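Annotated sample (chain length 327).
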Amino acid sequence: MRRWHWRAPLTHKRRNSTREVRAGSATGRPLRHRIPSRGGAYATANNGTQYFLSALEFFGSVDNRIAIWAATNTKSIQTTPAIQIQNEIVGNTIVYGQPPAAQQPNIPVGKICAPDLFMLVGCGLLNGSLLGQTFTVHAPLIDSNDDRMQQVMFADGKLWSTVTTVVRTQNGPTRTAAAWFALTPGWSGSDLTGTFAGGGYVAVNGQSVMYPSIAVNKDGKGAIGFSIVGPGMFPGSGYAKVSLATGATEVKLTSRGVFPDDGFTGYPVFDDRSGRWGDYSAAVVDASGNIWVANETIPCQEFAGPGNGCFRSVLANWGTLVAKITP
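Output written by the structure step:
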Protein backbone atom coordinates (compact mmCIF):
# COMPACT_ATOMS: atom_id res chain seq x y z
CA MET A 1 0.00 0.00 0.00
CA ARG A 2 1.21 3.53 -0.71
CA ARG A 3 2.04 5.93 2.08
CA TRP A 4 1.10 9.49 1.17
CA HIS A 5 3.24 12.43 2.21
CA TRP A 6 2.98 16.01 0.98
CA ARG A 7 6.44 16.69 -0.46
CA ALA A 8 5.94 20.20 -1.84
CA PRO A 9 4.36 23.38 -0.46
CA LEU A 10 0.61 23.58 -1.03
CA THR A 11 -1.94 26.31 -0.52
CA HIS A 12 -3.59 25.45 2.78
CA LYS A 13 -6.93 27.00 3.70
CA ARG A 14 -8.25 26.86 7.25
CA ARG A 15 -11.26 28.87 8.42
CA ASN A 16 -10.89 31.73 5.92
CA SER A 17 -7.13 32.02 6.35
CA THR A 18 -4.45 30.90 3.93
CA ARG A 19 -0.94 29.83 4.77
CA GLU A 20 1.78 27.62 3.38
CA VAL A 21 2.15 24.07 4.66
CA ARG A 22 5.31 22.05 4.21
CA ALA A 23 5.72 18.32 4.41
CA GLY A 24 4.58 16.80 7.66
CA SER A 25 3.26 19.89 9.43
CA ALA A 26 -0.14 21.38 10.10
CA THR A 27 -1.39 23.52 12.95
CA GLY A 28 2.12 23.41 14.36
CA ARG A 29 2.18 19.62 14.89
CA PRO A 30 3.41 16.73 12.73
CA LEU A 31 0.76 14.76 10.90
CA ARG A 32 2.43 11.43 10.26
CA HIS A 33 0.12 10.10 7.59
CA ARG A 34 -2.79 11.53 5.69
CA ILE A 35 -4.53 8.58 4.10
CA PRO A 36 -6.58 9.31 0.95
CA SER A 37 -10.08 7.98 0.48
CA ARG A 38 -10.17 5.32 -2.21
CA GLY A 39 -12.99 3.46 -3.89
CA GLY A 40 -16.59 4.28 -3.16
CA ALA A 41 -18.21 7.44 -4.52
CA TYR A 42 -16.62 10.39 -6.31
CA ALA A 43 -16.87 13.73 -4.51
CA THR A 44 -17.92 16.40 -7.01
CA ALA A 45 -17.91 19.38 -4.61
CA ASN A 46 -15.56 22.29 -5.36
CA ASN A 47 -14.74 21.12 -8.89
CA GLY A 48 -13.62 17.72 -7.59
CA THR A 49 -12.54 16.82 -4.07
CA GLN A 50 -10.14 14.19 -2.72
CA TYR A 51 -10.67 13.54 0.99
CA PHE A 52 -8.08 12.31 3.48
CA LEU A 53 -8.11 11.33 7.16
CA SER A 54 -5.31 11.42 9.73
CA ALA A 55 -5.04 10.40 13.36
CA LEU A 56 -3.85 12.99 15.88
CA GLU A 57 -2.17 10.94 18.62
CA PHE A 58 1.59 11.45 18.39
CA PHE A 59 3.08 10.74 21.81
CA GLY A 60 2.20 7.16 22.78
CA SER A 61 -0.87 8.22 24.73
CA VAL A 62 -4.56 8.40 23.75
CA ASP A 63 -6.70 10.83 21.78
CA ASN A 64 -10.23 11.12 20.39
CA ARG A 65 -9.69 13.56 17.52
CA ILE A 66 -9.55 12.86 13.79
CA ALA A 67 -8.50 15.33 11.09
CA ILE A 68 -10.46 15.49 7.84
CA TRP A 69 -8.50 16.89 4.89
CA ALA A 70 -9.83 17.97 1.52
CA ALA A 71 -7.86 18.64 -1.65
CA THR A 72 -10.21 20.64 -3.87
CA ASN A 73 -10.30 21.71 -7.52
CA THR A 74 -8.90 18.32 -8.51
CA LYS A 75 -10.35 18.60 -12.05
CA SER A 76 -7.78 21.34 -12.68
CA ILE A 77 -5.15 18.59 -12.90
CA GLN A 78 -6.37 18.00 -16.47
CA THR A 79 -5.49 21.57 -17.49
CA THR A 80 -3.60 23.96 -15.22
CA PRO A 81 -3.28 22.37 -11.75
CA ALA A 82 -4.42 24.66 -8.93
CA ILE A 83 -5.10 22.43 -5.94
CA GLN A 84 -6.12 23.83 -2.57
CA ILE A 85 -6.01 21.83 0.65
CA GLN A 86 -7.70 22.47 3.98
CA ASN A 87 -8.45 20.49 7.10
CA GLU A 88 -11.05 20.26 9.83
CA ILE A 89 -10.34 18.62 13.19
CA VAL A 90 -13.27 16.59 14.53
CA GLY A 91 -13.19 15.98 18.29
CA ASN A 92 -15.04 13.64 20.63
CA THR A 93 -15.04 10.65 18.29
CA ILE A 94 -13.90 7.51 20.13
CA VAL A 95 -10.74 7.10 22.16
CA TYR A 96 -7.76 5.40 20.51
CA GLY A 97 -4.12 5.05 21.51
CA GLN A 98 -0.74 3.43 20.99
CA PRO A 99 -1.18 -0.38 20.85
CA PRO A 100 1.19 -2.78 22.62
CA ALA A 101 3.06 -5.60 20.89
CA ALA A 102 0.90 -8.70 20.48
CA GLN A 103 1.55 -12.00 22.21
CA GLN A 104 1.39 -15.32 20.43
CA PRO A 105 1.60 -18.91 21.72
CA ASN A 106 5.02 -19.85 23.00
CA ILE A 107 6.60 -23.03 21.70
CA PRO A 108 8.01 -25.64 24.09
CA VAL A 109 11.76 -26.00 23.57
CA GLY A 110 11.34 -29.71 22.83
CA LYS A 111 9.08 -28.98 19.86
CA ILE A 112 11.20 -26.32 18.18
CA CYS A 113 12.96 -28.84 15.94
CA ALA A 114 9.90 -31.04 15.30
CA PRO A 115 9.48 -32.10 11.63
CA ASP A 116 6.44 -29.86 11.14
CA LEU A 117 7.87 -26.78 12.84
CA PHE A 118 11.22 -25.13 13.17
CA MET A 119 12.15 -21.80 14.65
CA LEU A 120 14.44 -19.67 12.55
CA VAL A 121 17.50 -19.60 14.81
CA GLY A 122 16.21 -21.81 17.59
CA CYS A 123 16.79 -25.25 16.11
CA GLY A 124 19.99 -26.65 17.60
CA LEU A 125 20.94 -23.43 19.38
CA LEU A 126 18.38 -23.44 22.21
CA ASN A 127 19.67 -21.07 24.90
CA GLY A 128 22.82 -19.84 23.26
CA SER A 129 24.22 -17.01 21.19
CA LEU A 130 24.16 -15.85 17.63
CA LEU A 131 26.57 -13.33 16.16
CA GLY A 132 27.75 -12.44 19.64
CA GLN A 133 24.30 -11.83 21.15
CA THR A 134 22.78 -14.18 23.67
CA PHE A 135 19.10 -15.02 23.55
CA THR A 136 16.52 -17.38 24.96
CA VAL A 137 14.45 -19.29 22.44
CA HIS A 138 10.87 -18.05 22.41
CA ALA A 139 8.08 -17.23 20.04
CA PRO A 140 8.66 -13.53 19.31
CA LEU A 141 6.09 -10.88 20.08
CA ILE A 142 4.38 -9.39 17.01
CA ASP A 143 4.68 -5.70 16.21
CA SER A 144 1.18 -4.22 16.10
CA ASN A 145 2.51 -1.02 14.48
CA ASP A 146 1.05 2.17 15.99
CA ASP A 147 -2.22 4.06 15.95
CA ARG A 148 -1.78 5.71 12.56
CA MET A 149 -4.76 5.96 10.23
CA GLN A 150 -5.35 2.99 7.97
CA GLN A 151 -7.21 2.69 4.66
CA VAL A 152 -9.95 5.30 4.10
CA MET A 153 -13.11 4.88 1.99
CA PHE A 154 -15.67 7.50 0.93
CA ALA A 155 -19.07 5.79 0.75
CA ASP A 156 -22.66 6.64 1.60
CA GLY A 157 -21.57 10.27 2.02
CA LYS A 158 -19.11 9.41 4.79
CA LEU A 159 -15.41 8.80 5.31
CA TRP A 160 -14.74 5.40 6.90
CA SER A 161 -11.47 4.24 8.41
CA THR A 162 -9.80 2.27 11.19
CA VAL A 163 -6.76 2.33 13.46
CA THR A 164 -5.10 -0.30 15.62
CA THR A 165 -5.53 0.76 19.24
CA VAL A 166 -4.77 -0.28 22.79
CA VAL A 167 -7.81 -1.79 24.51
CA ARG A 168 -8.78 -3.55 27.68
CA THR A 169 -11.91 -5.65 27.52
CA GLN A 170 -14.19 -5.94 30.54
CA ASN A 171 -12.69 -9.16 31.86
CA GLY A 172 -9.41 -9.33 30.00
CA PRO A 173 -5.85 -7.99 29.94
CA THR A 174 -4.57 -5.11 27.82
CA ARG A 175 -4.45 -6.10 24.18
CA THR A 176 -4.92 -4.48 20.74
CA ALA A 177 -8.19 -3.88 18.93
CA ALA A 178 -9.55 -2.19 15.81
CA ALA A 179 -11.19 1.18 16.33
CA TRP A 180 -13.44 2.25 13.45
CA PHE A 181 -14.75 5.67 12.53
CA ALA A 182 -17.33 7.18 10.21
CA LEU A 183 -17.10 10.93 9.64
CA THR A 184 -19.33 13.12 7.49
CA PRO A 185 -17.54 15.84 5.52
CA GLY A 186 -19.47 18.94 4.57
CA TRP A 187 -19.08 22.48 3.31
CA SER A 188 -20.01 25.91 4.61
CA GLY A 189 -19.47 27.90 1.47
CA SER A 190 -15.90 27.02 0.51
CA ASP A 191 -14.90 26.01 4.05
CA LEU A 192 -14.62 22.34 4.99
CA THR A 193 -16.71 21.08 7.90
CA GLY A 194 -16.93 17.65 9.51
CA THR A 195 -18.95 15.70 12.05
CA PHE A 196 -18.58 12.35 13.76
CA ALA A 197 -21.28 9.99 12.47
CA GLY A 198 -20.39 6.94 14.55
CA GLY A 199 -17.79 4.34 15.38
CA GLY A 200 -16.74 1.66 17.81
CA TYR A 201 -14.32 -1.17 18.50
CA VAL A 202 -13.69 -4.69 17.28
CA ALA A 203 -12.04 -6.58 20.14
CA VAL A 204 -11.74 -10.21 21.21
CA ASN A 205 -11.25 -10.99 24.90
CA GLY A 206 -7.67 -12.12 25.53
CA GLN A 207 -6.64 -11.82 21.87
CA SER A 208 -5.14 -9.04 19.75
CA VAL A 209 -6.94 -7.64 16.70
CA MET A 210 -4.53 -5.62 14.55
CA TYR A 211 -3.88 -4.03 11.14
CA PRO A 212 -7.55 -3.51 10.27
CA SER A 213 -9.00 -2.19 7.03
CA ILE A 214 -12.58 -1.26 6.23
CA ALA A 215 -14.67 -1.16 3.07
CA VAL A 216 -18.29 0.01 2.85
CA ASN A 217 -20.72 -0.21 -0.06
CA LYS A 218 -23.12 2.45 -1.33
CA ASP A 219 -25.81 1.23 1.09
CA GLY A 220 -23.63 1.91 4.12
CA LYS A 221 -22.94 -1.78 4.79
CA GLY A 222 -19.37 -2.96 5.10
CA ALA A 223 -16.78 -5.15 6.76
CA ILE A 224 -13.51 -4.78 8.62
CA GLY A 225 -10.76 -7.30 7.91
CA PHE A 226 -7.79 -7.79 10.24
CA SER A 227 -5.15 -10.12 11.62
CA ILE A 228 -5.83 -11.78 14.97
CA VAL A 229 -3.43 -13.47 17.40
CA GLY A 230 -3.18 -14.29 21.08
CA PRO A 231 -1.49 -16.45 23.72
CA GLY A 232 -3.69 -19.36 22.66
CA MET A 233 -4.07 -18.54 18.96
CA PHE A 234 -1.44 -18.54 16.24
CA PRO A 235 -1.62 -15.51 13.91
CA GLY A 236 -4.66 -15.80 11.66
CA SER A 237 -7.20 -13.48 10.05
CA GLY A 238 -10.80 -12.51 10.63
CA TYR A 239 -13.51 -9.98 9.95
CA ALA A 240 -16.55 -8.26 11.42
CA LYS A 241 -19.44 -6.79 9.45
CA VAL A 242 -20.16 -3.16 10.21
CA SER A 243 -22.75 -0.43 9.66
CA LEU A 244 -23.91 2.64 11.51
CA ALA A 245 -27.26 0.97 12.19
CA THR A 246 -25.87 -2.18 13.84
CA GLY A 247 -22.30 -1.31 14.76
CA ALA A 248 -19.79 -4.14 14.43
CA THR A 249 -20.97 -7.73 14.52
CA GLU A 250 -19.19 -10.59 16.25
CA VAL A 251 -15.82 -11.64 14.88
CA LYS A 252 -15.58 -14.47 12.36
CA LEU A 253 -12.32 -16.16 11.35
CA THR A 254 -11.29 -16.33 7.71
CA SER A 255 -8.17 -18.35 8.52
CA ARG A 256 -6.74 -19.93 11.64
CA GLY A 257 -2.96 -19.65 11.90
CA VAL A 258 -1.08 -22.91 12.24
CA PHE A 259 2.36 -21.74 13.41
CA PRO A 260 3.86 -18.79 15.27
CA ASP A 261 5.20 -15.84 13.34
CA ASP A 262 8.89 -16.65 13.11
CA GLY A 263 10.56 -14.14 10.82
CA PHE A 264 14.08 -12.87 11.31
CA THR A 265 12.91 -9.47 12.61
CA GLY A 266 11.63 -11.08 15.83
CA TYR A 267 15.12 -11.97 17.10
CA PRO A 268 17.31 -9.53 19.06
CA VAL A 269 20.35 -10.02 16.87
CA PHE A 270 18.41 -8.78 13.85
CA ASP A 271 15.98 -6.27 15.34
CA ASP A 272 14.12 -6.74 18.62
CA ARG A 273 11.56 -9.01 20.27
CA SER A 274 8.70 -7.77 18.10
CA GLY A 275 8.48 -9.46 14.72
CA ARG A 276 7.62 -7.16 11.82
CA TRP A 277 4.05 -7.72 10.61
CA GLY A 278 2.45 -6.36 7.45
CA ASP A 279 2.19 -2.56 7.66
CA TYR A 280 -1.25 -2.59 6.09
CA SER A 281 -4.15 -4.80 5.11
CA ALA A 282 -6.71 -4.05 2.40
CA ALA A 283 -10.45 -4.07 1.79
CA VAL A 284 -12.42 -3.21 -1.36
CA VAL A 285 -16.01 -3.27 -2.63
CA ASP A 286 -16.91 -5.08 -5.85
CA ALA A 287 -19.59 -4.11 -8.37
CA SER A 288 -22.20 -6.23 -6.54
CA GLY A 289 -21.57 -4.58 -3.17
CA ASN A 290 -19.58 -7.50 -1.72
CA ILE A 291 -16.52 -6.78 0.41
CA TRP A 292 -13.14 -8.38 -0.33
CA VAL A 293 -10.50 -8.33 2.41
CA ALA A 294 -6.81 -9.27 2.36
CA ASN A 295 -5.00 -9.92 5.63
CA GLU A 296 -1.75 -11.47 6.82
CA THR A 297 -1.83 -14.92 8.42
CA ILE A 298 0.53 -17.84 9.11
CA PRO A 299 -0.61 -20.68 6.83
CA CYS A 300 0.66 -24.16 6.17
CA GLN A 301 1.80 -24.34 2.56
CA GLU A 302 2.03 -28.10 2.25
CA PHE A 303 4.61 -29.91 0.20
CA ALA A 304 4.86 -33.60 -0.65
CA GLY A 305 7.93 -35.63 0.16
CA PRO A 306 9.56 -37.66 2.89
CA GLY A 307 7.76 -36.81 6.11
CA ASN A 308 5.62 -34.21 4.33
CA GLY A 309 5.37 -30.86 6.13
CA CYS A 310 4.84 -27.17 5.52
CA PHE A 311 6.98 -25.03 3.26
CA ARG A 312 8.50 -21.76 4.49
CA SER A 313 11.31 -19.48 3.44
CA VAL A 314 14.43 -19.29 5.57
CA LEU A 315 13.75 -15.79 6.86
CA ALA A 316 9.95 -15.64 7.12
CA ASN A 317 6.82 -17.77 7.18
CA TRP A 318 3.84 -15.49 6.58
CA GLY A 319 1.06 -15.63 4.00
CA THR A 320 -1.92 -13.55 2.81
CA LEU A 321 -5.56 -14.62 3.01
CA VAL A 322 -8.10 -13.06 0.61
CA ALA A 323 -11.78 -13.50 1.48
CA LYS A 324 -15.15 -12.41 0.05
CA ILE A 325 -17.77 -11.15 2.52
CA THR A 326 -21.44 -10.44 1.82
CA PRO A 327 -22.33 -7.57 4.17
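Annotation: Residues 95-102+140-325 form one domain.
Annotation: Confidence is low (pLDDT under 50) at residues 1-31.
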